[in-house]
């Protein structure tokens, strides 16, 4: 590792011997060499700039594979995932939602059809939420609506009310058209493929992957205290909320 050299010394070197120890592509005056990580890299002096800010840490990536009417899924989403998302800065946690779970995809007379663990209403709920994500596009727009649906009395009957509260700019008519048309089927086919590609294969829902991995330990930690798990895994500067977290109990998952 190169020794840390005071900026004044670097500047003196530049004045006395402009080409000494500095990258040929460095077009910046010496007093700016340590002003940013990009400039320090261009001048190849990063190891001599102790005051440079650390690179931004990657967010913890969490994917939730779930069913819209699975009770354990609804409780995890409403009591752990959504509150954790609210409490943490956006850059700490990246969430992907995949509504499909233990559903089965079938080809009936040349058309795709889906059979869901908790019946046709769950298939409708899965497709509604997939279409909502497709139409709203922005996670911060559609996640509160999905929270509203999953924490309410009916996943399939409260869309209008939840949109009015959390995302009035989203057109419910476009979501309905998606559900009733080919787009909804294509979205569910995509979710079936993504779920089917899990390694290891999912055995129940909610099925949670963290940074692309699933283990029994990660699943248990996420269900016990997702906030604590994300705070532990995140490599950047942590907010005060990471000081402590509670661990609620959850019912057994919806197995096949």
Automatic annotation (TrEMBL):
A GO MF label: oxidoreductase activity, acting on a sulfur group of donors, disulfide as acceptor
Cellular compartments annotated: Secreted; Lysosome
Keyword Secreted: yes
Keyword line: Disulfide bond, Glycoprotein, Immunity, Lysosome, Oxidoreductase, Redox-active center, Secreted, Signal
GO biological process terms held by the UniProt record: immune system process
UniProt keyword annotation of Glycoprotein present: yes
Assembly notes: Dimer; disulfide-linked.
The family this protein is said to belong to: Belongs to the GILT family.
PANTHER family linked: GAMMA-INTERFERON INDUCIBLE LYSOSOMAL THIOL REDUCTASE GILT, GAMMA-INTERFERON-INDUCIBLE LYSOSOMAL THIOL REDUCTASE
Purpose of the protein: Lysosomal thiol reductase that can reduce protein disulfide bonds. Facilitates the complete unfolding of proteins destined for lysosomal degradation. Plays an important role in antigen processing.
Name this polypeptide is given: Gamma-interferon-inducible lysosomal thiol reductase
